[in-house]
Amino acid sequence: MVALVIAEHDNASLKGSTLHTVTAAAQCGGDVHVLVAGSNAGAAVAAAAQIAGVSKVIVADAPYFAEGLAENVAEQVLAIAGGYSHILAPATAYGKNILPRVAAKLDVAQISEITKVESADTFERPIYAGNAIATVQSTDAVKVITVRATGFDAAAATGGSAATETAAAVADNGKSAFVGREVAKSDRPELTAAKIIVSGGRGMGSGEAFKILEPLADKLNAAMGASRAAVDAGYVPNDWQVGQTGKIVAPNLYVAVGISGAIQHLAGMKDSKTIVAINKDPEAPIFSVADYGIVGDLFEIVPQLVAELG
Amino acid sequence: MKVLVPVKRVVDYNVKVRVKSDGTGVDIANVKMSMNPFDEIALEEATRLKEAGKVTEVVAVSCGVTQCQETLRTGMAIGADRGILVETSAELEPLAVAKLLKALADKEQPQLIILGKQAIDDDSNQTGQMLAALLGWPQATFASKVVLEDGKVTVTREVDGGLETLALTLPAIVTTDLRLNEPRYVTLPNIMKAKKKPLDVTKPEDLGVDVTPRLKTLKVAEPAKRSAGITVPDVATLVAKLRTEAKVI
After folding, report:
1. How many CA atoms lie within 13 A of B149 on its CB side?
2. Using one digit for the tens of pLDDT, what is the confidence trace for A205-229?
3. Residue A56 in contact with residue A1, Cβ under 8 Å?
4. What angle do CA A85, A89, A92 make, to 5 degrees?
5. Domain extents for chain B?
6. B142 closest CB neighbour out of A93, A111, A122
7. Which segments constitute the Electron transfer flavoprotein alpha/beta-subunit N-terminal domain (chain B) (predicted)?
8. Best residue in B36, B91, B93, B125 to probe A by mutation, most A CBs within 10 Å?
């Protein structure tokens, strides 16, 4: 058995999600190979070769792989898929976009967002926004899987020394063209990779009010997040959204400020190690999952907290 | 130009589902069912394209039990011109649905298929991408903006860390994210009108599709419960607890 991991990268570096996916792949029981389909992606390839537990890195390099278009990357995966028992990708916007194309062409089911590997053909995955956990067994010859990063530790980024092999690049599909990208620039850690997250909800009352959270996030070196209610109200951009319809996170510390704790939000953060809730409503559902709660006005408590952290 | 919009009947998003005590699944007996919210957004988008004169016909499709006809009627009240139900009581996985939709697309020849990015019951997020692969069409998933003109569709996508824009040649697949639009409220006159719109019923066998499941659900369980912690009286206590008890700062 050999598992193939589709690396998520930006040509210059690997995304952290790739490391978590390698861990899940290793648990499937065999060798782990990594495919890096990119353009001038030498740095990403070098990083992939150093991941502990990876025995081979396959490189497909072509200009039309630069932006990770699903049509081209999926075709490349199919071109080298023969012989693999498992094909895995991170359950991120990147992996979710590509992998179902691969599964459909192989005429196999995809098992989405697994959080646990029980055996080589049996996996756990959340359904109904995490309100139930299904254990599913695949009857297909090849298991095509997306991996929820919060369910698996990251593989060590160094210590490996995988062989590198070049695969012939498939032809450009040509039906889809990359036009542009607007990436929010921030000095803060990325939401899904952060050790600490400070999130605001509808209780913030305005986009302006989120500024009060910035000194707290600075002190804690935290990423900033938000509930869907805050995003829908237009306070902050959508890529801050934590929840069923946003990002799934599991930091060491999650500070929920002015967040009531709707099911859809809890689905995105309830696996955090420690949860702190600050809310003026003592009945808010967020307190039922919080390790430490403070009932009170967030506009008084947050500055006090910043001061206390010194 | 014709647009196809597949819609799924799912447990209403306001219902908190319960796991059955025997662990075979979630209890959906006597639970309110509705159209998958992402599919409602897809129908709204298709309807707006028609209202803008860029599309001539919107066809809603559903796969599943007889009651999916109600979901299709809702779709026609939003704006679909007609409905097609692929009726089966079999458990349908995304691959099977993608195959059924491919068979219908071969027949109907739409230029655009707009789907919800995922259904809120199984949270698979697969059908649109699978359908695109089976048809050999380009795809733009997680759309927050769709512009249809000159034989192509330009789509802004919600990706990690921001937005990305792709231009696809037609025919193409688009899957919707939450911010694409806000679906309209269905009015009573439109519900009445929808009752008179044509609704065809077909079966997987008629389309020559084998829908046998590929996955076996061995068990469905409640997620591990997180127990409520404590309420601390002040910020100083909180910081002390975080430092000495939780050791996270």
Report:
1. 2
2. 999 999 999 999 999 999 999 999 9
3. no
4. 160
5. 1-243
6. A93
7. 23-211
8. B125
Q: What is the ipTM of this complex?
A: 0.94
Best residue of B31, B92, B122, B160 to probe chain A, by most A CBs closer than 10 Å: B160
User: pTM (2 decimals)?
Assistant: 0.92
B215-221 β-sheet, strand order: A116-119, A122-127, A132-138, B215-221
Nearest-angstrom CA–CA distance, A243 and A268: 4
- Cβ contacts (< 8 Å) between B179 and chain A: which residues? 238
Contact (CB<8Å) B161/A184: yes
- Give the long-range contacts of residues A269-277, CB within 8 A, separation 24 or more: A269/A197, A269/A199, A269/A242, A269/A243, A270/A130, A270/B223, A270/B226, A271/A150, A272/A197, A273/B246, A273/B248, A274/B242, A274/B246, A274/B248, A275/B226, A275/B229, A276/B238, A276/B242
CB A98 within 8 Å of CB B184: no
Measured CA to CA, the distance from residue B215 to residue B14 in angstroms comes to 28
CATH superfamily of B1-243: HUPs (3.40.50.620)
Measured between beta carbons, which residues in chain B are less than 8 angstroms from residue A126? 123, 223
Pairing of strands A122-127, A132-138: antiparallel
**CB nearest A101 (choices: B17, B133, B144):** B133
- In chain A, residues with a C-beta closer than 8 Å to the C-beta of B128 are 100
Please list every residue in chain B whose beta carbon sits closer than 8 Å to the beta carbon of residue A182.
162-164
Residue B144: pLDDT over 90: yes
The SS3 assignment for B37 reads helix
Chain A, residues 70-129, CB within 8 A of chain B, namely 70-71, 74, 92-94, 96-105, 107-113, 122, 126-129
